[in-house]
Request: fold
Amino acid sequence: NGQKFRDWRMPTKYELNEMYLQQGAVGGFAVNFYWSSTEYGYDDAWEQNFGSGNQSFYLKNGYDYVRAVRAF
Reply:
């Protein structure tokens, strides 16, 4: 359930793209946009579209889904 771990973080845009490519094995994704931790300037961050696979940047105060990752 992940509650005993304290090293959860947002994935980078590269990690998020790998998650998109392996979403069949990982599972649990909505067909929506997900935030990455990779910034694009002061006001924007990269996001991944889990419908099309495209990556783009968007205003940080916008609404997207989040999927945390951790190292193991």
In short: The chain has a mean pLDDT of 93. The CA atoms of residues 41 and 60 lie 10 Å apart. DSSP finds two helices and three strands in the chain. Helices lie at 13-21, 23-26.
